[in-house]
Amino acid sequence: MTATAQPPSARDALTRRLSTPLLHFIGGEWTPSASGETFVILTPTDNSVIGHAASGNAADIDRAAQAAHAAFPAWRALSGKARRALLHRVADAIEARADEIATAESVDTGQPIRFMKSAAARAAENFRFYADRAEAAQDGSSLPTSGFLNYTLRQPIGPVGVITPWNTPFMLSSWKIAPALAAGCTVVHKPAEWSPVTATLLAEIMQGAGLPAGVVNLVHGYGESAGRALTEHPLIRAIAFIGESRTGSAIQKQGADTLKRVHLELGGKNPVVVFADADLDRALDAAVFMIYSLNGQRCTSSSRLLVQRGVHDAFVERLAARVQDIRVGDPLDPATELGPLIHPTHLQKVCSYFDTAREEGATVRVGGERLGDRGNYVRPTLFTQARSDMRIAQEEIFGPVLTVIPFDDDADALRIANDVPYGLAAYLWTNDLTRAHTFAHGLDSGMIWINSENVRHLPTPFGGMKASGIGRDGGDYSFDFYMETKNIAVNLDGHRAQRLGMGTEAGS
Q1: What is the DSSP string of 448-471?
Q2: Of 25, 414, 448, 495, which one has the fewest beta carbons inside 10 Å?
Q3: How many CB atoms lie within 10 A of CB 259?
């Protein structure tokens, strides 16, 4: 496989960055851990050590929380217009360093450069979108009634913790941090230990854009130490988390003693339902893209394919040919469509489902094996002749693995689609308008795309049902989480309360 076509400056910048350990960013200062400990950073291409990062603990989290707490009053008091200007400067800097961000993300996570080239653009878009909403973030409603004017306004909740995952971490960090800052909150960010590099880049960018010291703080480390300390810290008023459902449950428990608000964007086992009357060419393109892009490591991947029996066999034949031809290789090669999985531990998890599929009686139509013995590569995999009660159809594999299940009619498809613990996203392919709306209404999913792959419109709500999470991101839905709503009632016509304690006069 050929080497990267990325500009040498981007590669050189990454090499220089990783020549010394990545530090925490606390109170406007770059600092090592209180313990002096570090952890290794591996590249998924061959699992070699490419750097080290400071390993944070409760003492580091406490310093970061104290810094966020101290910075909050001034940041909250800053006008929305001023916050808007700062966040646009962050977006400008992200765009200026797009090549550096894409290269770092590919090396750190194994994501193909063809997809990471858009990571900076998406992140910049997130910052611009919320920058433009900063001035109106506090706006509420006018609710008049007889003799009174009620009106509402919103105010930032306070310092918040943001815990982000290892899949597309740069974009997902911006997805959480941008609305928090626009709302007037200060932030302590704990990125995933498997992909810490671009979190450091983002903190650098925000510092360079002029955000005041303490408004954004970064602490690297493991979930069991730094993450838990953040979820339990009394100065942190809310936790925004993206990750697996089991960890989300633990975070909710850890935040209970301090009555933290939690926003949990969790796992999915998302169905793509293809009816016989659909545009099968477009449905095939979308089904392949939504599971095999981003290495299958995305919460909204369409990991279950439900196909109506009348077109099932022919559709699967075409599908198998496409999966067989997906290009696997070096993530920095522009021709690569599927790179290595994030970490050896995750590789082991994904590969375990190959044996599970065979044991359960499904057919491994394509793939089902590790690719080579260097790095975390697997062949794109297609399971057929599956049933909804199989583990491969129920559990989130989180890799380039698609399970195909046939269905008979609308009722059968809806039963199978809803027959999982998750309810994040669903994709429906049909040219029957009535069926499309009726079926969508019956799906237990927070987001549904009809005749489309996942195409995000930033003002719309993003989030799931059941084990897929709590709360919604996107548009003003994000402000509902990062802000408190206050009602103010004004007496307009001299209303007086009943008079108590007036003796006999009270009864006259």
Answers
A1: EEESSS----TTS-B--EETTEES
A2: 495
A3: 8
Annotation says 484 is catalytic:
no
| Separation of alpha carbons 106 and 195, rounded Å | 10
- Count of the separate structural domains present in the chain: 2
Q: Could you give the CA distance from residue 98 to residue 502 in angstroms, rounded to a whole number? A: 73
Q: What's the rounded Cα separation, in Å, for the pair 382 and 377?
A: 16
Instruction: For residue 249, give the 3-state DSSP assignment.
Output: helix
Neighbours of 221 (CB within 10 A): 28
Report CA-CA distances (Å) from 68 to 131, 172, 268, 411.
Answer: 20, 21, 33, 52
Provide the residue range defining the domain that includes 127. Answer: 15-266+468-488
Distance of CA 391 to the CA centre of its chain: 24
162-219 tens-digit pLDDT: 999 999 999 999 999 999 999 999 999 999 999 999 999 999 999 999 999 999 999 9
Q: Which of 265, 337, 396, 453 is catalytic?
A: 265
Rg, the chain, Cα only? 25
Residue 367 falls inside a structural domain: yes
Which candidate, 380, 376, 377, places its Cα nearest to that of 365? 380
Query: What would the two tokens of residue 458 be?
Result: 């930033």
Q: Are residues 206 and 307 in the same domain?
A: no
CA distance 161 to 164: 10
Both 339 and 304 in a single domain?
yes
* Cβ atoms of residues 61 and 102 within 8 Å: no
pTM value is 0.95
Contact indicator for 351, 344 with CB cutoff of 8 Å = no
Q: Where are the beta strands (DSSP E) in 78-236?
A: 142-145, 148-156, 160-163, 187-190, 216-218
pLDDT at 3: 46
Question: H or E segment at 412?
Answer: helix 410-418
